[in-house]
Amino acid sequence: MKRLGPILAVFLLTAGLWGCRPASNIPDPTREFYCNDFADAFPAAVRATIVAEGKRLYEETSEDETISGIQIVFATFAVETAEDIASYNLSDIYNQWEIGTDDMGILVVYFYLGDPDKPETLELEEVRIEVGFAMETYLPPWDMGDILDETIMADESEAIGTAHLLYELLTVMYVDIFGYEAFNYDLDVYQEYLDNYDPYSDYEGLWGWILYVVMSPYSGWWEKGLLVLLGLSVFGIGGGLVKTVGGGGRSGGLGIRRRR
Amino acid sequence: MKKPVIIVLASIGVLILTLGIILISGYNKLVSYDEKIGYEYSIIDSRLEMRYNTLTQLANAINGFQAHEQAYFEAITNARAAYAAAKANNDLEGMIAADNLSSIAMADLLALFEDNEPLQAMEAYEDFNDAVWGIESALSEARRQYNYSVMDYNKLVRQFPGVLYKSMFNFPASQEYWKPAEGTTQIPDITFGGNTGE
Asked: Looking at the domain assignment, is residue A125 inside a domain?
């Protein structure tokens, strides 16, 4: 029986490995999840907008009993040649990141052509949208195509075009799915926001508090403990505590693309 | 009862229990892999239905523009009928052949659009472009996922101990891949001289 134990253990272990696929080369989503700017192409203001609107949409739709949590996720990739784009399968990315609860998700991917190590040389080559199975009803390919034509393909500025694209997708989500009467946005106001964006504005309060806890003799032990916990959650050990994750959705490959 | 007898009986009991668990889990694994193929096939089926609907819309759109539009309708109808017949007979090869037929009908229609400027000037032209690209992309993904699930199943029933379970529970020795004819799986590179379709 002593000899049978290890043999049985190996048998059970190998039995569990049936049907495994080769390891995927798709990167994990970033901690921000809604904006995965791997090409480092988006301005900080646009990244902040995508993340804030993505979180808000997911929270609001998750709270609703009739709608599953909708997630709109952006990603950018830098490629050296246009042929390299074919190596990115959007369905694989979508399924690995598990976007949207009950397949109610949208993945928008920008492909930039140029030297990946020099973000200033990158030029937008192709934009693709892929939707989850359940989202196909609300966003058929011709509607996706129209939205791309009227936003990122039409606007001169990529930053405005991206915000425009996001707001148009949000309009479909809030009006067609959520039942709002309208979803209003103003791109002139957004341009002002872009012009005056302070990348540190979102963190001012937090940095101030961190400095206070570290430097001030008046800060309490509970505050120091809280800071340590926050540090652990941000820098590794407890990373899962703050990382936003996908809602478990799957895509069937229905999407659209536009080339510049 | 003597101690050695208890030990032997307990060992036999543990062995039977372990073998039972292994058999149940092996059987369940076979069932889930087999079911996965059925699920992935159902997606191909629904995508092909979407393609036939789009083809019919495209063929309707050319009504009046082309003297031989009836030929396009016939090609689509034939492909659809061939698929339905093959599906009814559970004939995978026939279904794949029908998939190829509808790919050819799609290619012919796209070529017709490419050669006719009045067709390209239609209001719904851009929508057709997007519908075709979207559906072909989805169909290509459905075939890929189907073939992955077939690969997983075939590996399972050819490897040990899956090969034993397959014989024991009378499961098929292998499943057939969805292999469309060469050139028909490519997602059409739609340009039609437009600047936004691509």
From this structure: yes
